[in-house]
Design goal:
This is Cna B-type domain-containing protein. The chain is α+β, with helices and mostly antiparallel strands and about 775 residues long. It has 6 domains: about 25 residues; about 120 residues, Immunoglobulin-like; about 140 residues, Immunoglobulin-like (Sandwich), CATH 2.60.40; about 90 residues, Sandwich (Immunoglobulin-like); about 90 residues, Immunoglobulin-like; about 220 residues, no CATH class. The protein contains 11 helices and 43 strands. Strands 12, 13, 15, 16, 17 and 20 form a 6-stranded antiparallel β-sheet that branches. A hairpin with a 2-residue loop joins strand 24 and strand 25. It starts with a helix and ends with a helix.
C-alpha cells in the first residue's frame, strides 16, 4: 500500500511541476507597472475643492531602460475614498491612430492595459487625464486628503470643504440646475424647480425647455416631485390633473401646470439627456428655457435663461519611436487594418543592384521581422511566400533607403489583401403567373450563419443577383462559409439549391382535398377478411366457423344519427358456409344506450345485395355508440344482449341492435353468426360503426354480458353447420385459464419472488465462502 501511495505522490508532483512550467511564462509575461518607475508624474488641476465639485488628474508615463513593456502589462492607480472617479474609457493612441492600450476609469481606481503595440516600438511614452469628484466629507468640515495614487511617487494633498446648509426658505419662484454623476458620466441630470415659495397664482404656469448641441433628450426619464415629498410619473402627473408635458421636438418640450393645482404647491421636474460623441468633446453642455407665470394680484412675469453643466474631461495618448539606426523593420498587416498582423510571411532583401543580403526573413507571430546593421544606401525587398489566406505579388519590389544622417532605422508597413470570392445566383419561379409575382424580392447573404448583406432582386435583371469582393477567409486563415436566403414571399414556398433560389406557388384547393379524403375512407372501409376471429361467449355447438365473405350491414341514417345508434337492417343470407362481405371492424366507437338485439338469419346471407358504399351513403356524422355486441373490443352495454336465431324466418327478418337489447338468452347457440358476439379475436380487430363513414377500432365502455344458457330458436340449423363454424369458436376453458394467468395474483406470495430471494441468498453465501477460502 505504501508503494502505491508513493507512486501517486510522485505523479502528482510531476504534474504540478509540468503545469507550473506551462503557465509560468504566461504569468510572468504580464506585469503591474505602478511601482516600477513607469509613472513619471501626476498632478491635480485644483488643490482645493468644495463638496461635490469636480477635479481633473493628469498622469504621465514612459518606458524605462531595461524594463521593456509587454503586451498585457497593466498600470493601476488607486483613488482615495474622498475622490470618486467618473466612469469612462480612454484610448491611448498616437497621431496615426494606432492604439497602445486603454484606460478604464472606475469609482475607486484607474486601470490601464497595454496591447502588443508596445512590443513593436521602442521608447514608449504617453499621458492621460480623468475627472474625480470631491465626496465623503462631513457637513461643516474641511478634510485634507494625501495620496500618491498607489505609485512610488511622493504624495500630494487635496483639501475638500463641505459647507453646512443654512436651512433658509427659498427666496425665488424658479431655478434650473444640472449635473453629471460619476457612475453615469455620459448622462446629464436636469432639474426644473417651480413655485418654490408655494405662492398662489393668477394663471397657469408655462415653461418651454430646449436642449442644445451634444445631447439627446431621454423622453421616458421624466419624474415630478410635489411639495418635495411625493414622487409621481409623467402619466400620474397628467392623470391627476396637475397639467401636462408635451414634446415639441426631439430635444424640446413644454410644461403646463394648471393654476388651481399649482396654488401653494411646489414642483420639481426631473429628466435626463445622453451626451453624444460630439458632445463629449464640448467643455460645457447647455440647456435653455423660457418661463411665463403670474402671481395672484401681481403682474405677469416672463423670463428666459441658459444653464450650463461642465462636461467630464477625459483624454490620453501614447507614442513610440522607430527601430535603431541601420535597422529595417517590416510590419506585415491586413490591408485596411494595421492592427491585424500577418505571421509567417517571408521576404528577401536586395541592394539596389540586385545583390541579396542574408537569407530570407520571416515575420513572427506579431507580423514583424527586422534586418539590422544595414549600411546607408538604397534597398528593396520582395515577398516570396505568405499564408494561403492572403494575396501577394512575388514580383513586386518594395524599395527603401537608409540615409547617412538618419538617427533611426526604417519601418516598412507592408499590407496584404485577404483572398476574395463572390456569390451569384438566379431566382426562378414555378407554378405561377407573371402577374402573381412581386415586383422585388430581398435576398440575404449569410457569412458563417450571420446576415452581412441584403440585395433587392427584380425582373429587370432577370431575377439575378451577385455579392462580390467577399473575403474568402478570416484573418486567421479559416475559410468563410457563405449561403443565401430569401426573405419570405407571400404565397410562395422558397427552396435554395446552392446559391440559386426557386419559388414555388402555393395553391389552395379545398375541393380536391375533400374528394381525396372520401376516397381514402372508402379504401379504409374496403372489405378485409379477419383471420380466425374468436368469440369469448357463444354456444359450444358453434366452433370455428369458416367465413369466406364479410356480412353486409344495412344502416338506416334516421336511426343512426341518434346517440342510441341502432343498426336495424342487417340482412344476412347464410349458406352452408356463410360468406361475409363486410367486417364488423368497420364500425368504430358505436354508442348504444339500450341493449342490442341481433337477429341471425343464415338463410338470407347469400341474398344480401347491400354494399359498403350504400352503408356509407346512409351514415350520418360518426355518432359514438356506447353499447354494442361483442364484435367490438370491450364494448360497454348497460344490459346483456339477447340473441334470437330463427332458422325458419331467416329470410324475412332483419337483425337489429334494439331486438338484442330486449331478449337476453343464456348460453346462446347460434347456427351461423356467433362471431358477431363476444370478443372475436382477429388480426385486425372487427369494429362496428353506425356512421356513414365506418372508421376502425371502436371504443366501447362495457362488454355485453350474455348468460350461459340463452334460448335459441334455430338449433337444428346450427347442428347441421357445426363443421363450418369450427374456426369461430368460443374460447375453451384452457383459453380462459390463459387469460386468467395474465391477471395479477393477489392471494399469496408469488413463486417467482421466492425464487429470486433464494437465488440472491445463495449468491451472497457463495461470495462469503469464496472470500473465506481466498483468505
Amino acid at each position: 500500500m505504501s508503494t502505491y501511495l508513493k507512486r501517486i505522490s510522485v505523479i502528482c508532483f510531476i504534474f504540478t511541476v509540468f503545469i507550473g512550467q506551462i503557465f509560468m511564462p504566461i504569468i510572468g509575461h504580464a506585469q503591474e507597472l505602478n511601482t516600477t518607475g513607469f509613472v513619471d508624474s501626476f498632478s491635480f488641476e485644483k488643490t482645493k475643492l468644495n463638496y461635490g465639485e469636480k477635479n481633473t488628474i493628469h498622469v504621465n508615463f514612459s518606458e524605462k531602460p531595461g524594463k521593456k513593456m509587454k503586451s498585457g502589462d497593466t498600470l493601476t492607480l488607486a483613488l482615495p475614498p474622498e475622490l470618486k472617479g467618473y466612469s469612462g474609457t480612454i484610448p491611448l493612441k498616437d497621431d496615426s491612430g494606432r492604439i497602445f492600450g486603454t484606460c478604464q476609469i472606475n469609482a475607486n481606481n484607474v486601470v490601464c492595459t497595454f496591447n502588443d503595440t508596445v512590443e513593436k516600438l521602442e521608447n514608449i511614452r504617453g499621458n492621460f487625464n480623468f475627472t474625480v469628484q470631491g465626496t465623503n466629507v462631513e457637513a461643516g468640515k474641511t478634510k485634507d486628503v494625501q495620496t500618491n495614487l498607489g505609485t512610488d511617487l511622493e504624495k500630494q494633498m487635496v483639501s475638500i470643504t463641505h459647507p453646512k446648509g443654512e436651512g433658509t426658505e427659498p427666496g425665488i419662484f424658479f431655478y434650473k440646475s444640472g449635473d453629471i454623476q460619476p457612475d453615469k458620466s455620459n448622462e446629464v441630470r436636469w432639474f426644473l424647480n417651480i413655485n418654490l415659495k408655494k405662492q398662489y397664482l393668477h394663471d397657469n404656469i408655462v415653461l418651454k425647455d430646449t436642449l442644445q448641441e451634444g445631447q439627446t433628450l431621454n423622453k421616458d426619464s421624466f419624474t415630478i416631485t410635489i411639495n418635495n415629498k411625493e414622487y409621481v410619473s409623467l402619466k400620474q402627473f397628467q392623470d391627476r390633473g396637475y397639467g401636462y408635458i408635451k414634446l415639441t421636438s426631439d430635444n424640446s418640450f413644454e410644461v403646463v401646470i394648471y393654476r388651481h393645482m399649482a396654488n401653494a404647491t411646489s414642483f420639481t421636474i426631473f429628466y435626463t439627456s445622453t451626451i453624444t460623441d460630439s458632445g463629449k468633446k464640448l467643455k460645457h453642455l447647455q440647456n435653455d428655457y423660457k418661463l411665463d407665470y403670474q402671481i395672484l394680484y401681481e403682474k405677469p412675469i416672463s423670463e428666459s435663461n441658459s444653464v450650463k453643466v461642465e462636461n467630464i474631461s477625459f483624454g490620453g495618448g501614447a507614442e513610440g519611436v522607430l527601430p535603431a539606426k541601420g535597422t529595417l523593420q517590416i510590419v506585415k498587416h491586413i490591408e485596411g487594418d494595421e492592427n491585424k498582423f500577418i505571421p509567417g510571411v517571408s521576404f528577401k532583401l536586395f541592394t539596389e543592384s540586385g545583390q541579396q543580403i542574408g537569407d530570407s526573413y520571416t515575420t513572427n507571430q506579431d507580423g514583424i521581422v527586422e534586418a539590422p546593421n544595414l549600411t546607408p544606401g538604397n534597398y528593396y525587398v520582395q515577398e516570396i511566400s505568405a499564408p494561403n489566406y492572403v494575396e501577394f505579388d512575388s514580383q513586386a519590389k518594395i524599395p527603401f533607403t537608409i540615409k547617412t544622417d538618419a538617427t533611426n532605422g526604417i519601418k516598412l508597413m507592408v499590407p496584404n489583401k485577404l483572398k476574395t470570392t463572390s456569390v451569384a445566383g438566379t431566382k426562378t419561379w414555378e407554378g405561377d403567373k407573371v402577374n402573381d409575382r412581386p415586383k422585388t424580392i430581398k435576398v440575404d447573404l449569410l457569412q458563417n450563419g450571420k446576415v452581412i448583406a441584403t440585395k433587392e432582386v427584380t425582373a429587370e435583371n432577370d431575377w439575378k443577383y451577385e455579392f462580390g469582393k467577399l473575403p474568402a477567409v478570416d484573418s486567421e486563415g479559416k475559410a468563410h462559409t457563405y449561403e443565401v436566403k430569401e426573405q419570405p414571399v407571400s404565397g410562395y414556398q422558397s427552396k435554395v439549391n446552392g446559391y440559386n433560389i426557386t419559388n414555388i406557388k402555393i395553391h389552395e384547393v379545398t375541393e380536391v382535398e375533400e374528394q381525396g379524403k372520401e376516397e381514402s375512407i372508402e379504401e379504409l372501409e374496403a372489405p378485409t377478411n379477419p383471420e380466425t376471429p374468436k368469440v369469448t361467449e357463444e354456444p359450444k355447438e358453434l366452433e370455428k366457423p369458416e367465413v369466406t365473405e364479410k356480412p353486409e350491414i344495412h344502416v338506416k341514417p334516421e336511426e343512426e344519427q341518434v346517440e342510441e345508434g341502432t343498426t336495424e337492417e342487417i340482412k344476412e343470407e347464410k349458406p352452408e358456409e356463410p360468406k361475409v362481405t363486410e367486417e364488423p371492424k368497420e364500425l368504430e366507437k358505436p354508442e348504444v344506450t339500450e341493449k342490442p338485439e341481433i337477429h341471425v338469419k343464415p338463410e338470407e346471407e347469400q341474398g344480401e345485395e347491400e354494399t359498403i358504399e350504400e352503408i356509407k351513403e346512409e351514415k350520418p356524422e360518426e355518432p359514438k355508440v356506447t353499447e354494442e355486441p361483442k364484435e367490438l373490443e370491450k364494448p360497454e352495454v348497460t344490459e346483456k344482449p339477447e340473441i334470437h336465431v330463427k332458422p325458419e324466418e331467416e329470410q324475412g327478418e332483419e337483425e337489429t341492435i334494439e331486438e338484442i337489447k330486449e331478449e337476453k338468452p343464456e348460453e346462446p347457440k347460434v347456427t351461423e353468426e356467433p362471431k358477431e358476439l363476444e370478443k372475436p379475436e382477429v388480426t385486425e380487430k372487427p369494429e362496428i360503426h353506425v356512421k356513414p363513414e365506418e372508421p376502425n377500432k371502436s371504443e366501447v365502455k362495457e362488454q355485453p354480458k350474455v348468460s350461459n344458457k340463452p334460448e335459441i330458436q334455430g338449433k337444428v340449423e346450427a347442428e347441421n353447420k357445426q363443421d363450418v363454424q369450427n374456426k369461430n369458436e368460443v374460447p375453451s376453458s384452457k383459453e380462459s385459464n390463459k387469460q386468467l394467468k395474465l391477471l395479477p395474483q393477489t392471494g399469496g406470495a408469488a413463486v417467482e419472488s421466492t425464487s429470486i430471494l433464494a437465488g440472491m441468498f445463495a449468491l451472497i453465501l457463495g461470495a462469503m465462502m469464496f472470500r473465506r477460502q481466498k483468505n
